[in-house]
Amino acid sequence: MSGSDSPATGRDAAAPDRPARADARRNRDRLLAAAREAFAATPDAVPLDAIARAAGVGIGTLYRHFPTREALVEALYAAELDEVVSSAPALLAELEPSAALRAWMTRYAEFFRIKRGMSDTLRAGWASGSIATPATRERITAAIAEMLSSGAEAGSLRSDVDPDDVTMMLLGVFLSTTAIDSPERVGPLLDLLVDALRPAPGPNGR
User: Fold this and answer.
1) Do 28 and 65 contact (CB within 8 A), yes or no?
2) Which pLDDT tens digit goes with each residue over 35-77?
3) Could you give the C-alpha distances from 110 to 39, 103, 107, 113, 124, in angstroms and in order?
4) Which residues contact 138 (CB under 8 A, 6 or more apart)?
5) CB atoms closer than 10 angstroms to residue 198
């Protein structure tokens, strides 16, 4: 075999792997998207075969990517948490800080709703150590701190607020509306919370 044949042979040998890897990534993304929709729709346990059907793949494909329910839940939770946290700077780049904070709260509420559908698996996994315990609260509070700081600099948000207090108030909104099954009240309560974070008007009303 001549030296000129080797590179072509190498390319030909590698070529079938690339579509296979791309297909695998697409299937994984579809499974995570289907799981996200399923867990957001109900707090009850969702059968894995239903998630596979919604993703348009077989149950064997699901198990190749996620051998257990815990593996699927851990991957989805990590992806959602990353997205919530990373959305803070993205929103600040597009919106005025108080508007960015309000939009971010809606995304965090969505994350909380999805988490409800995974809560039993998460608790059991965290207790047994089969699912790594994420630094959720710390990361959420850091995102809030970034938006509060930007708002304080812009004069649209108070500068005397502890970010962890905002985290606690948000959790209070989500837990209380969940307890009475009133998701329609989340939006108005978040509006009130953002209003409370705005600076008080000065003596001249400004």
Assistant:
1) yes
2) 999 999 887 888 999 999 999 999 999 999 999 999 999 999 9
3) 11, 11, 5, 5, 22
4) none
5) 13
Percent of the chain whose pLDDT exceeds 90: 72
What's the pTM value of the predicted model, to 2 decimals?
Answer: 0.83
What is the span of the domain harbouring residue 125?
Answer: 70-206
Helix 163-179 to helix 186-197 angle, to the nearest 10 degrees? 160
Residue with tokens 């257990």: 68
Same domain? For 34 and 74 the reply is: no
Same domain membership, residue 201 and residue 179:
yes
Using only C-alpha atoms, what is the Rg of the chain? 22
Helix (H, G, I), strand (E, B) or coil at 178: helix
Residue type, 24: A
Tell me: do 55 and 79 sit in the same domain: no
Give helix then strand counts, H and E, for the chain: 9, 0
Q: Measured between alpha carbons, how far is 95 from 117 in angstroms, rounded to an integer?
A: 31
